[in-house]
């Protein structure tokens, strides 16, 4: 499988580490060749017979550049790479952009799908702003657009609904879908500050590049919109989600809730109202016999309500980059098996 990476940050580097250290994962059966790596500020590399990932990771770690020899850098932009290079699957891992409504990631994905190339992405921008259009484009061109890691860091949420809930209608969901704010709220219960919590999450590689995406509720709004669109047939964007962040929470309010047997959680909800579908992201008090009360640190959980099952709850216990990277790799394996790629 020939892979083109657009975006080569934490997640792409962890995927590369897994590719390099395949021996550590004996059941992982995926032959891949990375033919392009394109970034925002670090330029791009292209090589038909495969880029040396060990060299690139070393160069990034030691000198924060893709290559020691600038002449090796490609003259293509990421969009031109998606449009012209010879690859099987685009792995879109550029940063989340709310302000630009999922762009330029949505254009990278659209360009690949228009060429009949499948896409695996952890970027929730395109799936929350452009899902309907991209899904239809994929179907029209015989390609797949998969994004398991966009919500809950690779825990099988979309796969669970599509593979295990055939024939059921999802009527609503609720959940803790942002590990960074959940970690910060847990940290505040111990008297820590918002700023310390952000710094710790950034050091763990879990926080979004722009802390406002987490703290002001944009990342969970994008996830809520993605769930509404993918699972409930809605057509909303993160801008339509009733959104709250955690800036108004202080260590004192977090500790006061704990004293009363409650915990503060940033909860995402999606629900139907006649033919309309709505979503919200709000700080709510959760009492101690609610499963969401048990979710600490970077954990996340979602409760899915449907017409043919009682609520199912998926819990992700403190995921890290391994989970997100594996979610994208699982998408790659699905693409390979569905399309008969080698
Ligand atoms: N980290 C996680 O645990 C996690 C979990 C779930 C989902 N995600 C999603 O996965 C994606 C990647 O996350 P990450 O943590 O790897 O991000 P990251 O470390 O911030 O890396 C982002 C990458 O995207 C590149 N980029 C930014 N703007 C670009 C543009 N306009 N065109 C092409 N490349 C561009 C950056 O290049 P430069 O640095 O050179 O500008 C960088 O290589 C994001 O959409 C994120 O929301 C991440």
Which features would summarize this protein structure in a list?
342 residues; alpha/beta; Rossmann fold; Dihydrodipicolinate Reductase, domain 2; 2 domains; six-stranded mixed sheet; 13 helices; 12 strands; binds NADP nicotinamide-adenine-dinucleotide phosphate
Describe the protein's architecture and organization.
With 342 residues, the protein is an alpha/beta fold. It has 2 domains: 2-154 and 322-339, Rossmann fold (3-Layer(aba) Sandwich); 162-318, Dihydrodipicolinate Reductase, domain 2, CATH 3.30.360.10. The chain has 13 helices and 12 strands. It has helices spanning 10-20, 53-63, 78-84, 105-114, 124-129, 131-140, 158-164, 179-189, 194-203, 212-215, 218-231, 251-259, 321-339, and strands spanning 2-6, 33-38, 44-46, 89-92, 118-121, 145-146, 170-176, 242-243, 262-273, 276-287, 300-306, 312-316. Strands 3-2-1-4-5-6 form a 6-stranded mixed beta sheet, with helices on both faces. Helix 1 packs across helix 13 (321-339), helix 3 (78-84) runs parallel beside helix 4 (105-114) and helix 8 packs across helix 9. The radius of gyration is 20 Å and the shape is globular. The chain starts with a strand and ends with a helix. The mean pLDDT is 95. NADP nicotinamide-adenine-dinucleotide phosphate (NAP) is lined by residues 6-12, 38-42, 78, 93-96, 104, 122-124, 149-150, 153, 205-206, 208-209, 321, 324.
């Amino acid at each position: 499988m020939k892979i083109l990476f657009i975006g080569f940050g934490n997640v792409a580097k962890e995927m590369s580490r897994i590719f390099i250290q395949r021996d550590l994962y004996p059941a992982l059966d995926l032959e891949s060749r990375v033919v392009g790596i394109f970034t925002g500020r670090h330029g791009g590399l292209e090589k038909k017979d495969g880029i040396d990932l060990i060299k690139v990771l070393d160069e990034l770690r030691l000198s924060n550049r893709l290559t020691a020899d600038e002449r090796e850098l490609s003259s293509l932009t990421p969009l031109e790479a998606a449009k012209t290079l010879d690859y099987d699957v685009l792995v879109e891992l550029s940063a989340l952009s709310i302000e630009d409504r999922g762009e330029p990631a949505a254009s990278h994905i659209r360009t690949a799908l228009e060429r009949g190339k499948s896409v695996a992405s952890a970027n929730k921008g395109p799936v929350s702003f452009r899902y309907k259009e991209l899904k239809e484009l994929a179907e029209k061109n015989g390609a797949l657009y998969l994004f398991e890691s966009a919500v809950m860091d690779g825990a099988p949420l979309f796969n669970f609904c599509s593979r295990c809930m055939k024939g059921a209608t999802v009527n609503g969901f609720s959940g803790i879908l942002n590990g960074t704010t959940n970690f910060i709220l847990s940290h505040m219960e111990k008297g820590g500050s918002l700023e310390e919590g952000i710094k710790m999450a950034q050091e763990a590689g879990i926080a979004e590049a722009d802390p406002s995406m987490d703290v002001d509720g944009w990342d969970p709004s994008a996830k809520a919109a993605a769930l509404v669109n993918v699972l409930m047939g809605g057509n909303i964007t993160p801008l339509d989600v009733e959104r709250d962040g955690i800036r108004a929470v202080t260590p004192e309010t977090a500790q006061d809730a704990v004293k009363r047997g409650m915990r503060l959680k940033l909860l995402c909800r999606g629900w139907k109202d006649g033919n309309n579908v709505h979503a919200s992201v709000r700080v709510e008090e959760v009492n101690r016999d609610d499963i969401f009360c048990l979710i600490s640190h970077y954990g996340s959980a979602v409760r899915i309500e449907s017409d043919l099952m009682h609520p199912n709850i998926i819990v992700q216990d403190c995921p890290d980059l391994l989970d997100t990277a594996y979610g994208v790799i699982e998408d790659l394996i699905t693409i390979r098996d569905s399309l008969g790629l080698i």
